[in-house]
Write a structure and sequence with these properties.
119 residues, 6 strands, alpha+beta
Length: 119
């Protein structure tokens, strides 16, 4: 039996991000909305954007979860280190190079490490 592709995952670690962007709930919602439109993903439900981890400086920041009809977009943001850790997983194929470029530009990250996995 031939193995089928289940999905595609882009994993991004962004460094030296714009602090005003990663600490703004409004900007994070804007990122999700624009990204979904750009890569043609349909959101399923509302974006979860809790701010927590305030007991320690290194854990403090927003996290985001956006279910999409074909899987999810998740992100974790560190106020202290000005970093973002974002995963886009979908059973539907999408242009991961467009998603990566948009994400780096949106967060004004000076450095990005990424991996794209076919699962």
């Amino acid at each position: 039996m031939k193995r089928e592709i289940y999905g595609y995952e882009l994993i991004m670690d962004l460094y030296d991000c714009d602090e005003e962007v990663i600490t703004s709930k409004k900007k994070l919602q804007e990122y999700v909305d624009k990204l979904c439109k750009l890569i043609k993903m349909k959101k399923f439900g509302k974006t979860l954007l809790p701010y927590f981890g305030e007991n320690a400086a290194y854990t403090k920041g927003y996290s985001l979860v956006q279910l999409i009809e074909t899987s999810s977009i998740t992100g974790h943001f560190s106020d202290l280190w000005k970093t973002a850790y974002i995963n886009i997983f979908s059973c539907k194929k999408y242009d991961h190079t467009v998603a990566k470029k948009f994400t780096q530009e949106f967060f004004k990250a000076k450095k990005i490490k990424s991996r794209f996995i076919v699962r």
